[in-house]
Model the fold of this input.
Amino acid sequence: MVSVHLDTTRSALDADKRIELRWRSARRSLAEQGADEEDLRLLDGVVGGVAEVPGPQGEALFASAGKLLGAFTLAEPPPADSARLLPVPDPLGLAIDRDHQLPHVVVAVDREGADVEAYPAAAHEPSFQRSFHGSTLHITRVKAGAEAQASFHRRSVNLWTENTEQVAQDVRDAAAHVDAAVILVAGDPKAVGLLREHFTARPPLGQVVYIGGGRTDTSARESLRANVDDAIREAMAVQHRGVLDTLDADLAGGRALQGIPAVKEALAEGRVEVLLLAAHQAGAPVLYASRHDPRALGTDPAALGGGPTVFSAPAAPLLLRSAVLGGAAFTELLPPARATDGVAALLRY
Done:
């Protein structure tokens, strides 16, 4: 199985050339490892990322026997390009990228309406999208005589309230559509304030976070996108810090394990609820696995009966393989890693 994780960022004018050079280096490494030319030619025609996605991105590709088995766009480029030929796929970089993503809703609201977009985790395009444009009649408060001024003000406030009430319902629908973890709201301060009141009365699914940016012009939209990325990263970090706190508590209570020896045994027995791995597995040992019992792992081939069905690979892809086959979830063990070998597990109760 050929596994490639590549930086396919398209921020620079010469992005295509940079990606070509990165792939050429990865291809040469794969050839030296013994990859079939058929697989390499196949990847020649696939590699390159998504030209329509500007800015930072990465790519994970998996191939074997002349077939493309997976091609994934990464929300962030990998810390370093990697190209490996192993008996099993090496999806750690892809798994960590997906672990960093959250289903979310982006709302840009002003006094006339809003743009509401809902994104499943790791999606680059919204699966739910609504643009609401309410009536603009008397939307701006005007200076007039006392009686007329009061009438215009009432009509303006009423219209703002009606507009944001519709937007609030759109947001509730969007959040439910993707099971949103976070809702990111930006735009005109007055409209945002009214939207906040609607959310207080009937909260949408997910945590509501108010950020800068808007929908009025290119600058406002660019600011919105940058603030969305920052808010998603912060929400992800908060979730992961919660996992680390759970790990500490469960280790103290005997409901979690750390280190490869203990975790591999729990995986083989199907007792792992969540596998935690650090992104950097430098120095991790080689483990052995068998095609007869894919969940079982060993440090010695004899422990698995030996024979032609036993093979070796780095620890991380084998631990992930065993976790998937045992129905366990996965999350990254964020630095500073608190577990031996950068490997830990939360156990099933």
